[in-house]
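pinned: reference chain
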Amino acid sequence: MTVTALRRRVLVLTGPTATGKTEVALALAERYPVSLISMDSAMVYRGMDVGTAKPTAAVRARHPHALVDIRDPADPYSAADFVADADRAVTAALAAGRLPLLVGGTMLYLKAFREGLADLPPANPEQRAAIAAEAERVGWPALFESLARVDPEAARRTHPNNHVRIQRALEVYRQSGVPISRWWAAQRGSSAAERLAVRLTEVALVPERRNALDERIGERFRAMLDGGLIEEVAALKARQDLSLSLPSMRAVGYRQVWEHLERGSDVDTVATRGAAATRSLAKRQLTWLRRWSHVTHFEPAPAGALAARIAEYARLEIS
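pinned: its structure tokens
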């Protein structure tokens, strides 16, 4: 079974959190020969299942997902890692005569896959660890001020709460002596179209009513707590090699539960804080999507009906 008229194409299904992307991707996989490739910065980590709404093992046995459970939470995963891994997964899908379907809401990963990355110095674990230790001593606001002094342009383009980006910018500057903004301006990596000789068809699930999404986020986070998220984070915290300095433990939901375990707050408080953090994530995701006029929006709907609409739009045909 092959998909006609889709040679050298990649279908991308994105959108803010809690809009049903996984369900729609699975509905597409039931009808069409697609290879599912996760585009989620938290699903890459093993042992982080409840808080990522990761598809169950049974679901993944029926419909395998590339780039799920490929890293230990103690081992940071970057956008550059994603591009390299996604390139390999796309190439393998195309070689098998299947349609690569990237699904997830990590917008930085999508931008990096589509446009390429700046040719930055490689990660320096020692420097990164030193910056994390400095953050523990003086706090991230002080490190953001330090970044603003050495690289005002990078600071302007970085949210003060984006600790991963602050850490990477300082790491590059301290390692190379060159502000990361100069690296950004000097060179861009090749686009997906250039690297893989593919054409991207990008669709996003974007609700017209934001309040409906906010309600769904609150309900879903409470369901995660009821489904064992606190116990999942407690097990991760007990490992001793994990901390809030790691990207995995700063993932939305995990950070709030970690802090709940340290502070001893009640469940209602962590539910409120976790839902608020998730709504902030959705807001950032929607901001990315507003900048991308080439991405076609679909109103979230039951998975089967929406999959049929997306398939018609993307001209998927089974032969």
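why pinned: DSSP finds 15 helices and six strands in the chain. The chain has two domains: 9-117+198-314, 125-186.
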